[in-house]
């Protein structure tokens, strides 16, 4: 069984403890990883602080960071096949999707390489006796806590802009699926970044994650994950007023209007809720259908769910396992809770008779007050409900504490855009769920968090503004 290490101060290091990583497709142990402790966390923070204080990242000409970033991107692309197989086996996702994470990670480094030398301040006119300007300066040490659902791409999503802006980074990988991230960091290592610029730790969130968040040398926190964990981090961050970027959960709704094209909608339902077994913060977890089309759409969605192939990720099926037995049992428990509240399970709702941690593609008819229609499931579970008119649809879509993404499906541009402008969320899709890419800003409102990742806007989450005002001497 292969054993993976942590990366601290330019060196790969083992630990006295280790964690076992399971293959969700088989339910069997796959590999082990060194379990970092407090001593490792302190060493990583000290290395990052030395890198920051030396100016090795921030004092160089920004074009040098561009060079490092592009070298990293090239190295990441070179290991996409190898890394994809590891990601597939530790996470359960399809082999194609796991490989795509590495390609997306490379794109993040390419994209932010192009911004590294374009983080420009402004000149402020104060009259002839003054010269005043602003600078964007890196925070310093960025602590980044990465989730288990897309560990490679989400790691790159925050690591790339942080490095482009001149920050040193300490990454806490998810203990459930930390392995492919080690390959990502090995590729980044090849780019030649200064020692201490990138550090990777796998440890328990309650131990290592909490220690990093509260550490005196932490200048910024980036977290993607559940609402309860994000709230705990924010309470700790408040002690030192540490700036944070929070990308939390969602209960996102798609609105299907009366003139919706059924094929267009079904294509988005398939990817929106069943991609990665529904373990996506921006999943289409609710489908609201205009009553005149409700029975037709409901029948088509159920037929779609029942047509999906289910299996281990290496075979690239439509539906793969969820990441762990705990996650499987949590999803099944929420389905049972829905049944007890009176919801109708139209299809699925069970664990298929397969080895591994599978949940059958599930469609549930529910009312807005039921917990299944309000709480994030993080599994292949779609809630479907009818609505009467635009106002009703918007009220239902906006009727949770979340506000990550939303969607509108219909043929009339005026109506779809009118409805989109009323939806509460950081990103709204029209006629294609997940429309966009690394170029489009992403983040939420409400319990879905704050701050933005991706796109040009994200780079400004990794810098702070300094104003310099000069009084000129009259000669």
TrEMBL record:
Where do the TM regions start and end? none
For this UniProt record, the keywords arranged alphabetically read as follows: Oxidoreductase
Entry-linked Pfam families? Aldedh
The active site lies at 247
An annotated Gene Ontology molecular function: oxidoreductase activity, acting on the aldehyde or oxo group of donors, NAD or NADP as acceptor
Q: Which residues form the Aldehyde dehydrogenase domain?
A: 12-467
Which species is the source of this protein?
Oceanimonas baumannii
Q: What is this protein called?
A: Aldehyde dehydrogenase
Q: Which residues form a coiled coil?
A: none
InterPro entries from the entry?
Answer: Ald_DH/histidinol_DH, Ald_DH_C, Ald_DH_CS_CYS, Ald_DH_CS_GLU, Ald_DH_N, Aldehyde_DH_dom
Return the similarity comment.
Belongs to the aldehyde dehydrogenase family.
């Amino acid at each position: 069984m292969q054993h993976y290490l942590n990366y601290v101060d330019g060196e790969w290091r083992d630990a006295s403890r280790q964690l076992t990583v399971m293959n969700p497709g088989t339910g069997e142990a796959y590999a082990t990883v060194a379990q970092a402790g407090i001593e490792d966390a302190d060493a990583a923070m000290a290395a990052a602080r030395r890198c920051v204080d030396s100016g090795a990242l921030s004092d160089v000409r920004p074009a040098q960071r561009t060079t490092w970033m592009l070298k990293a991107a090239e190295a990441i692309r070179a290991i996409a096949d190898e890394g994809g197989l590891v990601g597939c086996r530790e996470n359960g996702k399809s082999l194609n999707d796991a490989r795509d994470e590495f390609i997306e990670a490379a794109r993040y480094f390419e994209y932010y390489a192009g911004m590294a030398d374009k983080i420009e301040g402004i000149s402020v006119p104060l009259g002839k006796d003054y010269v005043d300007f602003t600078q964007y300066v890196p925070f310093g040490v960025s602590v980044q806590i990465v989730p288990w659902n897309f560990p490679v791409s989400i790691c790159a999503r925050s690591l790339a802009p942080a490095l482009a802006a001149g920050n040193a980074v300490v990454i806490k990988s998810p203990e459930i699926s930390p392995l492919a991230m080690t390959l990502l960091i090995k590729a980044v290592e090849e780019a030649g970044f200064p020692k201490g610029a990138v550090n990777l730790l796998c440890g328990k969130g309650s131990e290592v994650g909490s220690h990093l968040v509260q550490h005196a040398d932490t200048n910024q926190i980036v977290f993607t994950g559940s609402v309860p964990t994000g709230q705990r981090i924010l309470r700790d961050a408040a002690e030192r007023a540490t700036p944070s970027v929070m990308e939390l959960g969602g209960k996102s709704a798609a609105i299907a209007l009366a003139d919706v094209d059924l094929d267009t909608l079904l294509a988005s339902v398939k990817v929106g809720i069943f991609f990665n077994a529904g373990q996506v913060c921006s999943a289409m977890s609710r489908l609201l259908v205009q009553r005149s089309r409700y029975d037709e759409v409901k029948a088509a969605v159920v037929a779609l769910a029942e047509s999906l192939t289910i299996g281990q990720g290496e075979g690239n099926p439509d539906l793969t396992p969820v990441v762990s037995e705990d996650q499987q049992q949590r999803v099944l428990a929420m389905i049972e809770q829905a049944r007890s509240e009176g919801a109708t399970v139209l299809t699925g709702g069970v664990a298929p008779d397969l080895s591994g941690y599978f949940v059958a593609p599930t469609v549930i008819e529910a009312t807005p007050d039921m917990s299944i229609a309000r709480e994030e499931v993080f599994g292949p579970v779609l809630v479907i409900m009818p609505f009467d008119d635009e106002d009703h649809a918007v009220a239902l879509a906006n009727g949770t504490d979340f506000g990550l993404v939303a969607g509108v499906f219909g043929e009339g541009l005026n109506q779809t855009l009118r409805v989109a402008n009323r939806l509460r969320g950081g990103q709204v899709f029209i006629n294609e769920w997940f429309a966009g890419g690394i170029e489009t800003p992403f983040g939420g409102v409400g319990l879905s968090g704050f701050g933005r990742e991706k796109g040009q806007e994200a780079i400004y989450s990794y810098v702070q503004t300094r104003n310099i005002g000069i009084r000129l001497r009259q000669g």
